[in-house]
Design a protein that fits this description.
By secondary structure, this protein is mainly alpha-helical. The chain has one domain. It contains ten helices and no strands. Helix 2 runs antiparallel to helix 7, helix 4 packs antiparallel against helix 5 and helix 7 runs antiparallel to helix 9.
């Protein structure tokens, strides 16, 4: 009898509930790995785009700088969109008819426009992470449900057979525990992937905030604030 125990035996004898639980875990695993791979490639691509920021500041004019940011053609570039949003905000503020936003000076108008662009980029970066977190938190319980149902089904079968020896119970119960292992196999990559993507997104958002600060200074004052010099002056004063 023990030679017949295993994964396929569990799926065949577990009935509809075990089969649906296994399918649910398989679908959750496919979704989580898809999100991890797609979003992970997006983070790596955004890091390459962030590396082109120096090309922007070394450009001769704004239009050339915006083109220099597009070092990964064919993909959304949050840094390029931020620069374009800042350019559009400046032109709109200076060359539009009198409207309600004219009560704001250029600095406040630029701050709001760049903040909105960063919020949009943050939303795009975080898209799919809620699903990944949900899979990571629920997959162990789905697997545990399959284990409980499998043990229940096995005990009913043993009871009908009229034999409750350890050799008759250990096999079916151990077989049912496979579902718990499946749940963990699905949950662990989802949790680790979620944490890695959150760290990667935080890095990108930090770069966007710094770039927005420099863009704000450029559009309002006409020059970029050299942050390292400010840091050195503060160190000398301390």
């Amino acid at each position: 009898m023990n030679e017949q125990l295993g994964l396929f035996h569990m799926l065949q004898s577990g009935g509809f509930i075990i089969g649906m639980t296994a399918i649910a875990l398989l679908v959750m695993s496919i979704i989580s790995w898809t999100v991890i791979i797609v979003k992970g490639l997006g983070v790596q691509r955004a890091k390459k785009q962030a590396a082109a920021l120096q090309n922007f500041w070394h450009s001769t004019d704004l239009a050339h700088g915006i083109r220099a940011l597009d070092n990964v053609p064919g993909h959304t570039n949050p840094f390029k969109q931020l620069a374009v949003e800042g350019q559009s905000a400046m032109q709109h503020h200076r060359h539009s008819d009198k409207q309600l936003h004219d009560t704001l000076d250029l600095s406040d108008w630029m701050t709001g426009s760049l903040s909105n662009a960063i919020d949009d980029a943050r939303d795009r970066l975080s898209h799919g992470l809620a699903l990944l977190a949900s899979i990571g938190s629920t997959a162990p319980f789905v697997g545990l449900f399959g284990t409980v149902w499998g043990i229940y089904h096995a005990l009913l079968t043993i009871s009908d057979a009229g034999s409750a020896g350890l050799d008759k119970v250990a096999g079916p119960v151990g077989e049912a525990l496979i579902m718990t292992a499946f749940g963990l196999v699905v949950a662990i990559p989802a949790v680790l992937g979620y944490n890695a993507l959150v760290r990667g997104n935080a890095f990108i958002v930090g770069k966007l905030n710094r770039f927005a600060y420099d863009l704000h200074a450029y559009f309002v004052t006409g020059t970029r604030i050299e942050r390292p010099q400010v840091v050195r002056r503060m160190g000398q004063q301390g």
